[in-house]
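Ticket #4471: structure output looks truncated?

Reporter: J.K.
Steps to reproduce: submitted the chain below (204 residues) through the standard prediction queue, then opened the result file.
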Amino acid sequence: MKRHKLLVTLVVILVLVIMAAVERYVESFKITDVQIQRIEIENQNDSTLEDKNLYIIDVDYELNYSYGLRFFVHNFACTRYTANGSVDSLEKIIIEDSLRRPLNRYTEILNEYGGNRYGNLQLAFPDDSTSIRYIDAYEGWDEIYRVLQIGGPDLHSPNRYCAFYIRKTCPLPKYLKLIFKEREIEVKINNNPVVCRITEGKDE
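Returned output as attached by the reporter:
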């Protein structure tokens, strides 16, 4: 009887030790959807944008979790980096007009505003004045590819976006496609502009 109690006690202690030593962590993610919205900044002072249409990109994703020893697990969740990155291999990002003509070469990622490189551009929208959306700076489409493939603190976090622009002399972009090795996501671009304002404040 004493041996039985001792065995039960040892098992309980072992379980508690394992529970204390094991931690859940973000192993990978899967991109599930994308929204692209045309915006107009009513108090913008960057003359280089006057002849361009500006769009923000919002990425939806699912996180996949696993378990590991606490001492060997990094806190990936705090930045949305993950141990293994995307479960998919992203091969192409294609932007097309209404006639399915590719427009990628006419687009540029917004990485400057007012002639200055910025950490993030803070925008307030009339539909939710309490929420600030942050437009982060990226070097170009190549960097967007990397973030969508390996994860990162920006596109994979709430209220953080990237923006691209295209000259008004070009056709309006109508479709965006993410082409993965074994699937694709195609969405329509919303060309009904939403008016927003640049807000003052420090970067997060």
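Triage note (M.O.): checked the attachment and the full token line is present. The two ends are 60 Å apart (CA to CA).
Status: closed, working as intended.
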